[in-house]
Amino acid sequence: MWVLHITVLLLLLPPSLTTVSEGFKSETCKAGACMADFDTSTEGRLQPIGLFKDVTEEVDFSEIQVVEGKVPDWLSGSMYKVGVGAFNVGSRRVNNVIDALSKVYRWSFKPGKAPSFSTKFLKTGIYNRSIDDGELVPHKVVGDILPPVSTFEKVKMALWDSARDNNNITPWKLKGRDGITVTGESPLLFDVEKVNLDFLEKYKFFNKGSFVKEFMSASHYARHPTTGDSYNYVYMTGLDKGLLTGVEPGYEMIRVTQDESGKAVGEVVGFIKSSMSDIRIIHSLGVTENYVILPRLSLRADLNSTFHVCSNIVFDDKAPTYMHVMSIKDGSYKTFEFPSFISVHIVNSFERTNEKGETEVVLDYPTLTTMEGFNHERCYYEILNIEYMLSDQFSYRKDFKPLTDVTIRRFVMNMATGKGEVLDHPKLWKPQILHVDFPFVNDNFRGKPFCIVYFHTIQWDNRNAMGILKLDLCKQTSANWDDFNLFPVEPVFVPRPGAVEEDDGVLMSPVYDARTETSELYIWNAKDMKVIARLSSPVLVPWTNHGMWLPEE
Predict the structure, then answer these.
(1) pTM of this prediction?
(2) What is the DSSP string of 81-97?
(3) Which of 217, 227, 332, 534 is most buried, judging by how many CB atoms fall within 10 Å of its CB?
(4) How would you write 445-472 as a 3-class SS string?
């Protein structure tokens, strides 16, 4: 079926534009060797209910104990994660992970001192108003608000809550900002103090007036491998479509750097024109030494509803994937066209020179292998509704079956010829019907040639059994960690200071134990995926989306 699918795609594509290949062949792993093998046993499996619970307690500072093992002596800094705080306030609730009130989590390490833990709600407008009212205020959601929002409340939302500010996706460190920046899928940013997590500021880098609408930015900034500047985009348009404002619909590529006083400033790198009828959902982007890459995959944003975000998100299998590769130096760009793909998280991007001396820009992505059987009436992000995540009847199969089948794909874009190709990395894991996402690479290799990436995995067919997958894309080997009824989330890689090898360091993730309904912080040796330490937690840590490591200054 997959060969047939590839053949059909090739027949539909202009041959001079893009080629699709089965890709890499494994030379080092034969007869199942070097293959990550996850536990597929079902007897006694429990659902990770605690990952989707309200945890309203805030912790300003708490020493945590080493339950087992030893924390590396060199570990010095903090891991930050952003995610679920509460689904419910008063008699109202949301049912999607992305809509839960945001919380920031911090684990801190100093040699010779006890590790510590802190967590606080992100004091967004939605959070503050809900706490003041004692009831979750109506706001734009990906899933549902229950009980449903009334017509009168929708009118109030249109007037009061035109900008969704419930950022609960990613923590980031911007040069020139004192705190930790918390992002969502909008140009609106929040800074929190990096030690006690108190609210600092809510802001935008660009404010072009009331007649210019800023729709979206990526939840993930991309960091330049040399300068450390951060890159993103803002999709914007003048409400007059540029007639008087001069702002046409499209993606304004921005760089956040520092001015002479050390203050963070936003600069425009270039502009990619795109009509409002072809806005794509772009969750992450890539950056290399000389280019920033805007990946417009085939999730399209239609402006059907001003209240329900998911009503505006559709998979368009007739919409090609466009990769815009823009020069950081002068804003010029080339566009590469590929088949329709769905993905949200870039693994990494880098430049290389081929045997002809031509520059190639390379980008790796975990993408859905095929969209065959996808229910086009459903929104891609509704899979994160609690009713789907915790369904003992596996009700996702009807609407979201393709999400169980993921391929790591390499997009190669030749800047000299303007041609591109897609290569499929081999599936180095068992079972192959596995959701593989939330990639994390060594920060010292972001934007550079690399080999190793760590993923979070979910067996939706097996009560959400979760694990961690390590792939070496160069040697084509894999390793994994999972344990019965233990549920890690996205792992964060911490490089050992002075390390040369790419996997010389540790992985960290909070892990939920469904048997005891408690959380612990796990630390793994990133080379062999063995647990080297477990640390206590003063509170349950529910689902967290993304994280980062900030070394001690």
Answers:
(1) 0.93
(2) EEEEEESEETTEEE-BG
(3) 217
(4) HCCCCCCEEEEEEEEHHHCCEEEEEEEE
